[in-house]
Amino acid sequence: MKIITLMIMTLMSLQLQAQNVMDKLQGLLNTEPSVEINLGPAMLGLLSGMTNEEKQVSDIMKNLTEISVRVYDLDDGDFKGDLNQIKSFINTLAGEMKSLGMEQLAAIREDDSTVYIMAEMGAESMKGLSVMSLDDDSELVVIKIGGQIMLKDLAGLMSRFDVDLNDMNINLKD
Amino acid sequence: MREQSIEKQVSEELTEYFEQARQLKCPPSMKKNLYAQIGLNKTRQWLQPAMAFSFVALSSLGLVWHNHNQNEQMVLAQAERDMQIAMHYMQKVSEKTLTETNTHGIKPAIIVPVSKSMAQI
């Protein structure tokens, strides 16, 4: 019973952690994200239905529960925060995630770049993937993918939805 | 006296005639013709409002379905667009990580599965 309670508490803390990352960042940066995407289970289910003819993609989508993206432009006039503080925050956060049992798949610590790819591992597949990337001191990207994820599936998903975003009427920085 | 007797006889005959006529049932064909002449039709009476109601109900249903379908298409298009943006950033970060990690040799054993996965793109 104690083990089950402990497992539930760990799972809950991981969920809270994931949600808190976005909230904490929002508070720290004190600026609105230039891109904000929240795809929940309902939306992913709809997309899965839409891609029914592509069975592989549809199956991958069915296993996902969440895709959240936040992109902050740090070199525009609105941002007045401290970049070192953000780097320190990302490093601390990655450390906290590791202490909660998440696997660090990749890390880059350079003068102008800080990137972490953290995975919440299950028995046979990943249960969640968090990406934090501060690139060229100008753009901060935070991505969270929840659900059962296989790396090869992720590549398939990226391939399926890989489009030239310049064709779309949105303001994205390359 | 005789005049009164004739009147009474006529009255009685007429009463008897109309009584007999009243008791005779109208043949269905005649009944139908009579109803038709005065513009009454049993079938039409309930059919017309029912048809009108059905038409309104069907039209409303069609309109609701069309709107629902259109909304769903819009939501789907938005979701697909969001997914494309999400995967764009995912790819951007992954490519960057892969290049940098190959250069700096950070945890090559763990990065190998990721790089294989990225190579499929």
Question: What features would you highlight for this structure?
Answer:
heterodimer; A: 174 residues; alpha+beta; six-stranded antiparallel sheet; 5 helices; disordered C terminus; B: 121 residues; mainly alpha; 4 helices; 88% helix; rod-shaped
Provide an overview of this structure.
- The complex is a heterodimer of chains A (174) and B (121).
- Helices cover 42% and strands 29% of the residues of chain A.
- With 174 residues, chain A is α+β, with helices and mostly antiparallel strands.
- With 121 residues, chain B is mainly α.
- Chain B has a domain of 40 residues.
- Chain B is built from 4 helices and no strands.
- In chain B, helix 3 crosses helix 4.
- In chain B, 12% of the residues are buried.
- The C terminus of chain B is likely disordered.
- Chains A and B meet through strand 1, helix 2, strand 2, strand 3 and strand 5 of A and helix 3 and helix 4 of B.
Radius of gyration of chain A: 17 Å
Helix content of chain A: 40-55%
- Kindly state the mean pLDDT of chain B as a whole number? 77
Helix content of chain B: over 70%
Which shape of chain B, going by the Cα principal axes? rod-shaped
Q: In sequence order, what are the helices and strands of chain A, one letter per element?
A: HEHHEHEEEEH
Q: Estimate the global geometry of chain A from the Cα principal axes.
A: globular
Uncertain parts of chain B: 103-121
Q: Determine the most extensive contact between two protein chains.
A: A-B, 43 and 35 residues
Give the count of structural domains of chain A.
1
Q: Average pLDDT value of chain A?
A: 76
Main sheet specs of chain B? none
Number of helices of chain A: 5
Q: Low-confidence runs of chain A (pLDDT<50, min 5 residues)?
A: 5-14, 167-174
